[in-house]
Design goal:
Largest sheet: 2 strands, antiparallel
Distance between the termini: 61 Å
Helix content: 55-70%
InterPro entries: DNA-bd_dom_put_sf (IPR009061), MerR-type_HTH_dom (IPR000551), MerR_fam (IPR047057)
Strand content: under 5%
Protein name: MerR family transcriptional regulator
Shape: elongated
Keywords: DNA-binding
Organism: Streptomyces thermolineatus
């Protein structure tokens, strides 16, 4: 099973999961579906403060608690956090991530709106990738220029 794939073939948002061949950066504790905030922090690289903030702003679905009030995260929560991490890497604004989380909680009737939100963000990502490719070409040109200049000065 992968970061974005559940046993039922659905991702953490209920949509069909994509196969992911990249291994997790940090393995989950084996044979468990209950994790403390410290274990989740270690697995995800997010601080406990960030995890609590995600919950407070509505980015995390309701996290189960023990009788003593301690958070107990599930594999499904970890899948969700993996997906949120991917959205963060793409530069999705927190407000859009929160809106997406709200739509997920509202149920399947929001699939079209979720799809629209992700499509719009995909276009932003593609635009940024194009800008980065142009910037990379400039860097490559400058690096090659310096290499040429160094070779020329070494010949003299």
């Amino acid at each position: 099973m992968t970061a974005v794939q559940a046993e039922n073939g659905r991702g953490p948002d209920g949509a069909t999961a994509l196969p992911c061949t990249q291994p997790r950066p940090r393995p989950r504790p084996a044979d468990r579906d209950r994790y403390t905030i410290g274990e989740v922090s270690e697995h995800t690289g997010l601080s406990a403060h960030t995890l609590r903030w995600y919950e407070r702003i509505g980015l995390m679905p309701h996290v189960d608690r023990s009788h003593g009030g301690r958070r107990h995260y599930s594999d499904r929560d970890l899948d969700w956090l993996d997906f949120v991490g991917k959205l963060r890497l793409t530069g999705m604004p927190v407000a859009d991530m929160v809106r997406y989380a709200e739509l997920v909680r509202e149920g399947e009737h929001t699939f079209a709106e979720r799809q629209d939100l992700l499509r719009a963000h995909r276009e932003n990502v593609r635009s940024r990738i194009a800008e980065l490719r142009t910037t990379l070409a400039v860097l490559d040109f400058k690096i090659d220029s310096y290499a040429d200049a160094r070779r020329a000065s070494e010949r003299n």
